[in-house]
Batch of 4 targets.
Target 1
Amino acid sequence: MYAIVAGGGKVGANVARSLLRLGNEVTLIEQERDRFERLEDEFEHQVQRGDATELHVLERAGIARPPDIVLALTGDDEDNLVISQLAREKYGVGQVIARVNDPRNQAHFDLLGISPTVCSTSSIMALVEHEVPEHDLIHLLELRKENLEIVEVQIDRDSPSAGKRVESLELPDGARLISVMRSGRAEIAVGSTQLEAGDQILAILEPGKEDELRRVLLRR
Amino acid sequence: MKALIIGCGRVGSSIALQLQREGWDVTVVDENEDALTRLGESWPGAFLVGHGMDVDLLRDAGIEETDAVVVSTDGDNTNIVIGQVAQKRFDIGCVVVRILDPARADFYTERGLRVVCPTKTAIDTLMEAVRSCAIPPAKVAS
């Protein structure tokens, strides 16, 4: 496969190195002179110097072939957005992955249809939430394309849903229970499944329905 | 009529002042507090310090009730993103974006942004000036 990697910082350089080790053809693009010269020692002709948001730089790197994938991994969200748009919409690149540096910019990537994206801050925060649950509802997975997310909820003794069957719960539209984990064993949640204190529930829902789901299951 | 100017450099500040003189209600946003000095000592409009990609700041600046947005920071890609956010997220009909790079200017014009490319304008003006020089025919021949 042929990959263009934009941005030769820690992330970009490591991704390029890994792709090369797997036997792929790679062109890495780095703008900054010092960094480029250091990369050149290792990557030789496989690194080019330039601003990857400039069309002639992308074209020199072979974007018109087009590559199988473009990775927009610079430290600048604006640049990553523009690189992704150019790759996909001007050159017809089939696969683009963009790095989000500031999680507050995620909405801009979503707005402009840039997907998938990777944000290390968000990934770390999701892990923190999972490892040290501060909240009663933990986000496990975001299905961005489907506009759905999977969350985990722990039922406790005071929860209004404890002792109730799934079919008797007034779940909000756009939210369904997937499974119930009880003493280390998971079961698919069906209408007749009875919830008990201590159950860990997986639910799938549309983003924004968390509060309604919380109310039904936990009354909080 | 309300205008929001993002980026208060030489271009942004001049546009802000001119629109204000023409009776517009103008709000200016710049990352740098010192940029306010470009608007003179008695700037009657609003001035907010912050980054134009910050949606909360745009809301504070009243983007939801704005008729026109001019994006003129010193970064082409920043302008491209803010321009699209104003157009697609806030549904502003009149969004004008400055892009210095002619290649990116062409691409985003095709995609429906109202782009002004000062580089292209300069090239055209300079070419016109060169063409209009009266060069003696003898020199042209040699």
Note: The longest helix of chain B spans residues 76-89.
Target 2
Amino acid sequence: MSDPTRIPPTGLVLSGGGAKGAYQVGLLKALLELGAGIDMLAGASMGALNGAVLACAPSLPEGVQRLETLWNTLASQSPVEANTPAYLKLLAAAGLTLGTPLPTVFAQVPALAQSMRWAGSAMQVAGVWSESALLSDGPLKALMDEYLDTEDLMRGLPLYVAVFESKGGLADLLRCAVAEAGLADTPPSRFVHVQSLPAQERRNALLASAAIPLLYQARQIGDARYSDGGQGGWQTAQGNTPITPLIEAGCKQVIVTHLTDGSLWSRHDFPDTTVLEIRPQTPITPDGSPLGAAKAALGFDSSNISRLMKQGYQDTMHCVRRVMKADQSRQALRQSEQALTDSLQRGNSADAALTDAMSRLQ
Amino acid sequence: MSHDIAPITPDAPLCQTLNCLPEKFVVDFANGIDVARDHIRVQRGRTSFFSRMYDGFTGQGARRNAEINASLADGVEASLRWLCELTESLAHSNWAIAQVSDRVTALTGNVAQLAHYSADTRRQLEDLAHQVDVRIQGMAREIARIDFIQKAQLNVDATFDKWAAGRFAGLAPAARCYAALEELRWGALGDYCRNYGGQRQCRDFMQMVTHRAIKQLAEDAAINLQTTVDTVEVWLAAPPARRGDSDDMQQALAYLADGMSTDAAPFVSSAVQQRPASRSVPLIARAERVAEAMVQEVFPQEMANV
């Protein structure tokens, strides 16, 4: 028999968004101040890394403190560092085989590529990119060494991360482009319970979840290679907003954070779960163009991080306040109804006593 | 964007209540507003030709519209549910108000009844208080009278004890009787008789005083009660061995009897003068005759009712 006073497990979904992950620091600070209790975490991409830092901490306040310190470090020491040998190899491959400017490659989709005469060359480039990455994951590993402790992770909150089975960097990118065009959605991401993985694969899972195709290397987990979990179920943000593992783990209420303006993730796909979405109330990406979005995702500069932290805090307060105010009104109504009922019952007793007393006067 | 909502501070009361999310429909209702506003904000920014083409081609515009519509539908549904609950609550409140009104009406009737009862009780209490007051006053008077009787009785006893103890031994028997009667007249007995003259108790006192005077006179004369003796030789005769204060007492008696005329009080006058002062004084007399005559002369009004 369930205890009605027992608070159902609460999950927190930390969606991916690169440098916009600083938004989640402000959000977590606000949740902390609001007294929110978090029982399990799920994250994709940068959200997975943020979630890992939280999960490693002995308590939520400590985790938030560590996250703030981490992001202040990122503001002064960007984790984005060019992988020079790979970049040169890429340039050579592209230059020798295509003879076309690099940006042109990004504009192609697989269907077009197959029908074009340089398709074979493009696939060669894709082959090169499948094995190499433009950015080094060295700084990311160094940060993980500093902030993530495997033993602490095992003792922390349950953490699920989204990973996407990679078919190679360019192929993944092209699949996302096709999905973005509405032609065919990407396959769903896989959700991994980090604490259930073998010790050597935990770090790989976190790195894989944040491995943006082409920019970072895909990671081997089990028999397959996985990259950024935000790619799966692209059209519905299934992978980038990993609420599914939390629901399957028993969460009846989930706080979902979004790092994109107007995210098309839909709460209506989860009718049995109470979902509180924290959405940006002002543009989280000042420049709405694709280039601006990429810049925001990789813009680990102090002003951007500071702005995002502040915005995350304010948006959380705003969204939560609206919900809690409505709930307070209902609670007040119920309490007043109960008080009225109690008062009427007491009145009935008093009436009976008065009737008895008056009958004695007759 | 809702700019009408003031910024929340961490110390606000609602900040202490997020340990559990509210009911799902409340969250969907309230949070759906922010979701819809987010989509609307993005939608408003995508008005350029390319954006419109892009959103239409990719289907994102339609999905966004669907999300907005779904949020609005949720809001309307939640509003309906909330409205129904509010209406039920209002109906419950109205019913309660009606019940309270009925109760107030009944209470007003009861209060009126109580007021009448209170007024009746007050009148009865006033009557009772008056009766009790009268009764207490009567009791007080009765107690005072009894106290007075007691004092008169004590006065009688003390006076005759004094006589029997020989305090008037320097006087003639008739003078002793007069001295004792004067002491009674100016003492508690006299006060009593003046206040309650005509009452039976007063008459009883007079008879008691007469009887005790008869007895004491007979004892002083050493005669039987039925024995008749010579007035001058016995009743008016001063004792042979007179003490020093006897003259003073005799003079005091004379002073006291100064207001009495010989005709009205022949025996008193005779006792004071130590000789028959009037023809109405018999030459021989029993103790009873002397005592009754002197009581009659000293307490003429009281004896009139005997």
Note: The radius of gyration of chain B is 57 Å.
Target 3
Amino acid sequence: MRIKRALVLSGGGAKGAFTVGALKYLMVELGMRFNLVIGTSTGSLIAPLVAIWDIANLVHFYENVEQQDILIDRPDLFAFLFSDALNDSAPLERLIQRFFGEDERYRRLLQSKTEVFITVVNMQTGEVEYGNPHQDPKPVFLKKILASASVPVMMPPVKIGESQYIDGGVKEIAPLSKAIDEGATHIVSIVLSPEANHRPPVQKEFKSSMEILKRTLELLTDEIVDNDLRVATLYTEIIRYMDEIKKRGRERLGLNSSQIRGLFSGIKNPFRGKRAVRLTTIRPEEELIASSLEFRPDQMREMVDRGYRRAKEVVREKEPHGLF
Amino acid sequence: MILKNRKVCFWVLLLSFFVLLACEHTPERGPEPLEGFFEKVTALVTTTLRSHLRGDLSKQRLLEERIPSFERMTHLNQLTTEMRVIESLKDLGDLIEKDVFFELQKPEHDKERDGFNSPEIQRSLILSITSGMKRALDQLRERKDAN
């Protein structure tokens, strides 16, 4: 069986610094390489640099970027009444151009052996679509990176052709299903929120509509990421369960392979040709920061360090089986 | 008449406000991508050391004391050997070596790879590593001061 290693990078705005720390450990210290990397939102800013092993620029970007380098506040009332978002994402667009648009770096991305996909949501069709440097022309791919990072309402949608695109995290925060569809056998997923039982209740009353909107987005985000992980885990468990049934049929009932196939014939098998994946998830043990749209270098550096340490712990826990 | 003038003033101000908003200019901001081998080594070393030294004041102090002598080294091997001798900095020497070789294996750094043992490259490498050490300590100090 050919091994296909995938890296799945979830959304989470400034919390992406945690991902960067984890990748520094996995790729630089452990020498881990991936055949496939799929990113959503902040993960889509990270994915192309992972493909060209540019961890130095990843740490440099996430440790030094500030709020105003990403977004410009629009006056709330003005934005609510007259525009498509509360913030302007022009600075982020320029940063994307600077970090990914430069010809030499883009050529390296096209030559990379690591396939890159980034998730976006088409507002008109409501469907998840993927950006890929081999399938999209460069300007479209760069726009999709921006779109993937554009949290709706907070940042304007990105127009590509006739459609408007927004953050892929609206429907898929940890795009594990894409990794499975692409034939991944081993997946490392980096998720930026803790498990549900480690999310403490917020001890305050939400008074303004903006606070309520932000909290609602957080709750939706947590729910989507939980579902993404649940579906991937369930998928693997079902395939393992079916494999076990077949094995027991052979061992205990003495059936041969064609008899076992016969038992399943006539039933539509949604898992035909699919394989169980080995999934390793690296996520913080506690909430990283209160707002994922708060970019403060000191805070980001601390998150890089937390990601680094957490990845190390997870790898140790996984030993002696190893991640791959 | 006064009322009429006030109305005109109001509309002129409102119009100016919208014109200013439309003309809003955002200067180039944010980090520039790192291009060279040495600046990339500095970035990796900074992160490695900061992640390992966070919360460990005695190690931070020890490293700070040793930086001037590390700066005088002429070869990476000399630096890592020196670090391995110091029990609490032993692991860091290995990790710095990993940072350097991770960056060195990339096709875009063939010049540095080909002339790796040359005195010029080794000297620049030592300086890029010690810059990373200083930067990591500065960042840890900044955080502490802020608290």
Note: The two ends of chain A are 14 Å apart (CA to CA).
Target 4
Amino acid sequence: MTNGVIHWFRFASPQSFYPLAGRMLPWFAVLAALLAAAGLWIAFFVAPTDAQQGESYRIIFIHVPASWMSMFLYVVMAGWAGFGLAFNTRLSSMMAHAIAPTGALFAFLSLWTGALWGRPTWGAYWVWDARLTSELVLFFLYLGYMALHAAIDDPRRGDRASAVLALVGVINVPIIYFSVQWWNTLHQGASVSITRAPSMAATMFAGMLVMALAFWMYSIAATLGRARAIMLEREAHMQWTQDLKEAAR
Amino acid sequence: MDAGPEGGGTVNWGSTADFFAMGGYGFYVWGSYLVTAACIAGEVLFLRARRGKALRQVRAEKGRNETAA
């Protein structure tokens, strides 16, 4: 402690994590707002009109980042849930539950913007394509995770039951990702790959990355905010929450 | 559908009306962006309300402890 080493496990208790989360939250919120402003500027004023799709392609700047976030957040959520299940650490389970609604929101936005993009491009809002269907399953997994936890009176028992659901559901994430390769889908293949240059104009690619970073920062801020509320809710009977200055009347 | 920087405005849009029309895809593009913005704004409001409620819960527990003591 005296030699400048940060003891990370200190933050594994809600009591120490609550103020830390409160200090970090505004930074992530401000970063999210700045990145979103920059991303929207690129999306509408820098990126050129697409030669084939005209202006309808501009949906990509929220559709792809939202889809990425929905998958990524699920894996992080399942990771926290699994950690809570294995080590019985109460903060881990709280973090998993703090992520779920934001993940569900991005899964919904992925489906919603996909439908609005599909209609002018394919002529249909919805098709039972492997990519679309597996993303819909992801949305339902988020809802099922939240519903299962809400249905069990004891939050700690609910944590364990919903963690099992979250972990089983992880199998769906690679299915979504590889669906465009494994099945013959209407949905186009990956636009971004590590092994080859992006199949789009540099400005379009930049806009998508900046929007993805904005969603990322937003997700962190929303998760921290919700985790703080969950800590207060679950530990309202404990001394540390009652000693908080915001709990003074 | 060419991104020609003719006249004023920005590279993409000749006028504000052009911007809102989105080359005829206004419904789809704005339908995507506005719903995304509404969802995020909704989540932020929801989180604020949840925090307020949680703090009231803490105060209620505290009051119960103080009267019991």
Note: The radius of gyration of chain B is 25 Å.
